[in-house]
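call fold(seq) -> tokens
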Amino acid sequence: MKVYIRSTGNISPQHSLNPDAFFSSRISTTENYFKSVEPDYDRFVDSKMIRRMSRIVRMGVAAAITCLRNGNVENPAAILTATAYGCLEDSSSFLRRMIEFEEKMLSPTAFIQSTHNTVGAQIALLLKCHNYNNTIVHRAFSFENALTEAMMLLQEGSGPVLIGAVDEITDDRHAILSRFGLYKKTGEEGRNIAGEGAAFFLLESQPGGSPQACLQDVQTLYEPESVGAVEHAIGNFLDENGLSMRDMDLILTPHTGNKKMDEPENHLLNSVFRGKACFPYKSLCGDYPTAAGFGLWLAALLLKEQNAPAWMSGIRFPIRQILLHNQNGNEHHSFILISALD
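ret:
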């Protein structure tokens, strides 16, 4: 089922909350991980409430409110929030207090705010929204499964649906994952640069209200046996939508900077993606399980503007079809098909 992206809101390591600023400058990092460019939250929430919110909750709330404002919608019919890590900062705080106070006289605040559904719940409380609200936590398939659920809700007649992908990176999390070789350490080359972000989308079943783009389909693939299996899955996915690789104007690839993990993707560049305009979207936001949310935001922006920043070379306009390929650890693969409006 086709659904339409009416509006977006995105807080990321780039100036994504303001598309004009995003087009004018690209932010790079010399650190081990990307940190989001955060706005003045007083524009979105009362300052007294901001002090009680953790960083990831502030990012999620601001991105969701921006999305709703851009779509001229006060209250969505449903709120779906996708996250793999949840509220890491509050989780770390709660665990530290358990040790510090020897599991006695603990304040419940950090625990309450450490649950994965905190962001979605806070958005609903601020909007006074009593409609359907769900948080999807499924590792690197969290956002893709949330998209699938949103499409099912729209098919049943609910709409508009507010859907978001939210994850943060903290010093503790980075230190743990870098020990396993997943993320870059200081002075190390050829490793992933971790990232974070909060991307929200307002989806509708009808193309009213000047939508940005059309979300045609989403599909996931878990633990493919080989790169050939990924190629086969891509071909089947496009075929099911009445398309072929010849119809794709741009491929957004999940290159992370990790030489070993990027080997299958490099193979795809020399086979099924050969001759196609490609751009590694994780070079802008870093690597994290729900990074596909940033990729979808980027695809929708390019299709709406029919233009790209000067630092995104090799893309010829107009573009009609974009294939977003996401992968995490070469285990979780997903394919999202986004198209311009007819």
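The beta strands are 3-11, 78-82, 132-136, 161-167, 197-204, 213-222, 250-253, 278-280, 321-328, 332-339.
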